[in-house]
Amino acid sequence: MTDDYLSRIGNLIRDARKHRGWTQAQLAEVLGTSQSAVNRIEKGHQNLTLEMLARIGEALDSEIVSLGGGPVHLRVAGGRQLSGAIDVKSSKNAGVALLCASLLNKGRTTLRKVARIEEVNRLLEVLNSIGVKTTWLNDAGDLEIVPPEHLNLAGMDAEAARRTRSIIMFLGPLLHREDTFQLPYAGGCDLGTRTVEPHMSALRPFGLDIKATGGEYHAMVNRAVTPGKPIVLTERGDTVTENAIMAAARYDGVTVIRNASSNYMVQDLCFYLDLLGVKIDGVGSTTLTVHGKADIDVDVDYAPSEDPIEAMSLLTAAIVTGSEITIRRAPVEFLEIELALLEEMGLDYSRSEEYLAENGRTRLVDLTTKPSQLHAPIDKIHPMPFPGLNIDNLPFFAVIAATATGQTLIHDWVYENRAIYLTDLNKLGGRVKLLDPHRVMVEGPTHFSGAEIMCPPALRPAVVTLIAMMAAKGTSVLRSVYVINRGYEDLATRLNSLGAQIETFRDI
Q1: Can you tell which superkingdom this protein's organism belongs to (predicted)?
Q2: Global confidence as pTM
């Protein structure tokens, strides 16, 4: 490797380490080397083997090196207005939940229009490694899933499993199939320490006991233990609720789940289970009554609904660039608070009459944005469980607030360090002040200007940065965008179809 390449690789490793919040010593410990060796690597003074680069990339969950020639970056020519119409793709979070839920069914599951994103790819790698046959049926994203009679959990692709937080949702389905099993620690976005204890408390009533050692969850199931009373979730989390529902689906009895999430991906899971013959009362509320079946063997065909977070991403891109576009197939019941808040801030838009998604349940509309002069809201912006403002939609209000006149306080109480990444907007000319790990004050309006930025390791702040670059004067570069590809299918290409100018490239 030339000195120039070593220096550039070292800079990428340093930036990825800092975004993960690690010291050189912490990275060294994971790699089994010294802090001084990591220091030399980051300064470009250390020759590197491909094996070491791969190990560093795995440790930092970053595409430091790949067979394609290095991490993927985006070059954005900003300041362009968007125009045209675009369809919202199916829900990422529903898709991954349904992939996990397919393990409940001995029969064939066909899912329609599944988003071809990295998070789905990682789960498919895990499923294939344990013997599940998965087949993409066509270019529309229809996916067929056929489980084996017996899962080969010993053959699980641990590397793929560690790169997705969704692996935690294997606990609910597997506890009915195996008396003992192991799962690698869940990975995914770097959003701080999110305990798995809420999952454990939701699943203990079904006899599941977990010991976390050696980088794995060691699970044991006591078949004599069954839910004797309603399960009260200590956290109204989406994945926690999904795990509890999936555990209850194969329990031969009735399970009541209180303080359940009623968010979009939970509802899609319930609609899918209904096709499997699992009756669930209270869908859309915080109390679910699940009438489980000990044995499920059904061939089913299900279309998950559209993604409200992607709809919000497209809406934000239109607002920030002052554009008129039509966003078709937006799941309005999961955007109503966001739209009400945007109306309060001065957004001018129109919406079509409601119609149903392909699942026959979820309400959709077409939204057409108008260029608008926004002002800061009177109160702070904060998320709440559905039907409140969606936790994943909160970061988009940072870049929206940056274009509005006045000061906006954004309170991200769920994650202890996601708000920190919103300060990357300052590198583009924003005025975002970090008040504490949960709160930022955004001052607007902002005249964004181009810059080169390392992609934040959290999905939504990464897209927020990209959208700000689309509004910025001049050219920007967003480096190492694997995290965006975890949650969005061909986002740059789809934004380009509306008139954006985003180029994908590699430089190593």
Answers
A1: Bacteria
A2: 0.83
